[in-house]
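re: the backbone from monday

yeah here it is again, tokenized this time
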């Protein structure tokens, strides 16, 4: 479906920008607009994850059903999880000193948010430029 193709590119690009340009701490001198808005990040995370799952179920190209949309779909689900983990990490007051396993997993994932954001932007750009590619 062309709508899911567009949503996948849009969600991956926006998620990549939010993860790359977003501030790691809340005490920043310059606000980045929607990149630091927790409500926008939560909605974008949910939309990215749902779009990734739907993209796995409904591929764009009928020749090879799973492989053509595998990388953007997995990237969308991962972007959604990283954004949701970021919101969870910001909402817990003792996020840095907690021994909760989910909290430590969120901290581990969020240490690589900037490279992951660049990767998401690259996947979105490549998926836009080469829609018929086998693994993209």
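seq for it, each position gets an aa:
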């Amino acid at each position: 479906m062309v709508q899911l193709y567009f949503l996948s590119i849009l969600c991956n690009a926006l998620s990549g920008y939010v993860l790359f340009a977003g501030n790691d701490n809340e005490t920043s001198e310059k606000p980045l607009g929607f990149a630091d808005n927790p409500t926008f990040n939560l909605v974008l995370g949910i939309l990215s994850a749902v779009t990734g799952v739907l993209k796995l179920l409904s591929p764009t190209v009928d020749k090879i059903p799973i492989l053509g949309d595998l990388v953007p779909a997995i990237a969308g689900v991962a972007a959604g999880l990283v954004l949701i983990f970021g919101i969870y990490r910001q909402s817990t007051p003792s996020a840095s000193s907690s021994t909760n396993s989910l909290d430590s997993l969120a901290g581990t994932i969020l240490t690589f948010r900037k490279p992951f954001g660049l990767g998401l932007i690259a996947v979105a750009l490549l998926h836009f430029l080469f829609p018929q590619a086998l693994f993209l």
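The two ends are 15 Å apart (CA to CA). The longest helix spans residues 70-91.
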